[in-house]
Design a protein that fits this description.
This protein has 55 residues and is mainly α. The protein has a domain of 37 residues. Helices cover 58% and strands 0% of the residues. The longest helix has 13 residues.
């Protein structure tokens, strides 16, 4: 598969940059969903908590 990236107006460094505040806000927004599915996704709850700690 070949990707043509010449028309993209941002650098590789910009692409690989992580906005921690934005990601934390996104993850915290999923709180209700994860609480509703706790019985079905206990491992995902744990992984989500680890992600929040890393942010």
């Amino acid at each position: 598969m070949c990707y043509h990236t010449r028309s993209i107006d941002f650098t590789r460094a910009t692409l690989q940059t992580v906005d921690r505040a934005q990601w934390k806000q996104e993850v915290m927004g999923h709180e209700e969903l994860f609480l509703a599915r706790h019985d079905y996704l206990p491992e995902m709850i744990y992984k989500r908590e680890l992600l929040i700690c890393r942010l």
